[in-house]
Specification:
74 residues; alpha+beta; two-stranded antiparallel sheet; 2 strands; 42% helix
């Protein structure tokens, strides 16, 4: 169906920590996707990345952060 979206990411997204050792988590990841569902795949990808960076606030990450967003358009 149009606007079907697939988001594939490594655990570096959900396990990204802030200075209080709080993980970004699955719930935040889902919230970002749901909030931006009508946007383009590139926008959703950038928004996930930006929100992880904002959450981390410069805290050094020990894992890779990889995201792929695929969206069906018609």
């Amino acid at each position: 169906m149009p606007n079907d979206t697939v988001v594939i990411y490594t655990d570096g997204i959900t396990e990204a920590m802030n200075k209080d050792y709080e993980q970004f988590g699955l719930e935040r990841t889902i919230n970002v996707v749901e909030k931006n569902y009508s946007e383009s795949a590139s926008f959703i990808l950038k928004e996930i990345y930006d929100q992880v960076k904002l959450h981390s606030d410069g805290f050094k990450q020990s894992d890779d952060i990889t995201i792929m967003v695929i969206k069906r358009v018609e």
